[in-house]
User: What shape does this take?
Amino acid sequence: MSVRVDYTREELITICERGVIPEKKWRNRDSCEAHRQLGSCWALLKAGCEFYVRSHGGNCSTDENTIWVEVNAHGFAAFDSGGGLDDETFYLPTPERLDRNAGGDWY
Assistant: This one.
């Protein structure tokens, strides 16, 4: 079974939106941070920032449960000191993981 890494911007935005569940359904100490990750990733993707799905291996590599997305944005350095893009890596649930948890906490 190969791991999918060719997600489109629109698919990732939909995953961010599907991943948000009510706080009363959270079941993990990291559920709050997982939701912050969804929100930040969603905002940057909606803004049109460059992104790629990480698939190089290692701890932050997309697998059957988690999509690791690196987003590059014009942050502080780009505007104040002529530097390059800021990059940040986010973790998102795969659509299959969301389906398995049927509206419950996916983290």
